[in-house]
Amino acid sequence: MKNLKKIKRTELKAIIGGGEPLPDGWGVCYIKGEQVPTPCDQLCPNKMQPTCAWMDPGTNNQ
């Protein structure tokens, strides 16, 4: 934690997040630095597990 760079307020404003949400049951594979949408029940093209977001237990996703 000692080597963390301090972020300036102007740099924070430049961070852009988000994008189109993935459908339920889909995750992201990182192939050569690119995000590739992949179903969570399948392996990525590089045979790794996709990064998937799971719904919180106790919430209703309908």
TrEMBL record:
Q: Which domain of life is it from?
A: Bacteria
InterPro entries noted in UniProt: Bacteriocin-like (IPR058074)
User: What is the protein's name according to its record?
Assistant: Bacteriocin
